[in-house]
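User: Hi! I have a protein structure encoded as tokens and I'd like to know what sequence might fold into it. I'm fairly new to this, so please keep things simple.
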């Protein structure tokens, strides 16, 4: 149904929700009780859940019967506004197709003369203020739909960064577009780091699924990192569950990705057994780094591709290497991220050749 032409069915559908659109609701049970969500159905088999109260991140995502995203044991959980220290972030980490990390720090817990910072900062624990929901209206020749909002990361006597987010797509197109703008709405120069934690799980991720990118990958440097990302290791083929990845076992590689002639980075995953690929696109000048997280734990089986301004090295290390971004009062930066699902062998082949 990609690029669906609505002329043939326009007189057969009285309610566009029969085809797709945006439906908002509230979780009424479990650890996420009270959280506002938006289910978005593209009419192609691609449907996904935006959790409005978790920074408008995307958790569940499906293509037909196949889950694309990895969900943590907790799944959708209510935000923890004060999960700002140590590893508290992990307590409410939903996994999901997209969890935003930042806006001033990405990486592990740390403390220096500039302050104390918890894992991956605060933004994914902040509810959004929704400013608009635009539904598709085929009768008016409008197939586009979007949800837009603002997430404010701020405190009195501190920094204020506004994340203005728009998530959009079109009926008949298996594409998700994320347009973000980070604005320093405060009165002081503010550090800025951003990383999109894109988490993929079974059945898209399975033994033999291929991770696709073009660039130079280096191990994060730990012992377990080196075991998977060491020289002459096939770290682009997904592994079976590994005993050594039980508990905190994990590995991470930092990729200096290459862009095409237009400055666009193409990467993603391909499951040949399912004839299914998930494509990710972003602009190299906006996000020069891609991090690959691999955690092949039993019952916690996940890999992530993470575009960002930095790999998750932390604000302190970024400051020392002079790569830390500073936004002056009134200054802003824009970020564009796109997902596309492919299930056509010809399109998948073209995508793989683009990477090569």
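Assistant: Happy to help. Inverse folding works backwards from shape to sequence: for each of the 356 positions I chose a residue that suits the local structure. Here it is:
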């Amino acid at each position: 149904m990609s690029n669906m032409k609505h002329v043939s069915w326009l007189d057969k559908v009285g309610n566009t929700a029969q085809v797709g659109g945006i439906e908002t609701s509230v979780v009424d049970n479990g650890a996420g009780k009270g959280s506002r969500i938006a289910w978005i159905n593209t009419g192609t088999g691609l449907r996904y859940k935006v959790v409005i109260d978790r920074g408008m991140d995307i958790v569940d995502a499906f293509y037909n019967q196949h889950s694309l995203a990895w969900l943590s044991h907790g799944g959708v959980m209510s935000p923890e506004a004060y999960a700002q220290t140590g590893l508290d972030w992990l307590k409410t980490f939903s996994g999901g197709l997209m969890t935003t990390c930042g806006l001033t720090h990405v990486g592990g817990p740390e403390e220096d003369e500039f302050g104390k910072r918890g894992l991956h900062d605060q933004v994914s624990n902040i509810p959004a203020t929704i400013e608009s929901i635009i539904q598709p209206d085929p009768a008016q020749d409008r197939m586009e739909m979007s949800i837009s909002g603002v997430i404010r990361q701020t405190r009195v006597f501190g920094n204020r960064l506004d994340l203005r987010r728009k998530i959009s797509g079109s009926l008949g197109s298996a594409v998700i577009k994320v347009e973000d703008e980070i604005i320093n709405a405060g009165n002081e120069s503010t550090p800025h780091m951003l990383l999109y934690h894109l988490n993929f799980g079974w059945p898209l991720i399975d033994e033999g699924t291929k991770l696709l990118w073009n660039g130079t990958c280096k191990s994060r440097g730990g012992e377990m990192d080196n075991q998977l990302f060491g020289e002459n290791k096939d770290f682009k083929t997904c592994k079976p569950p590994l005993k050594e990845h039980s508990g905190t076992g994990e590995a991470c590689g930092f990729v200096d990705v290459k862009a095409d002639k237009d400055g666009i980075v193409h990467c993603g995953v391909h499951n040949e057994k399912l004839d299914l690929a998930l494509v990710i696109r972003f602009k190299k000048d906006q996000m020069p780094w891609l991090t690959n997280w691999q955690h092949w734990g039993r019952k916690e089986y996940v890999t992530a591709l993470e575009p960002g301004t930095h790999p998750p090295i932390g604000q302190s290390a970024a400051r020392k290497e002079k790569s830390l971004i500073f936004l002056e009062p009134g200054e802003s930066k824009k970020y564009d991220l796109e997902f596309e699902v492919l299930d056509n062998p010809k399109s998948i082949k073209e995508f793989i050749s683009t990477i090569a």
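A useful reference point when you look it over: Residues 345-355 form the longest helix (11 residues). Feel free to ask if any position seems puzzling.
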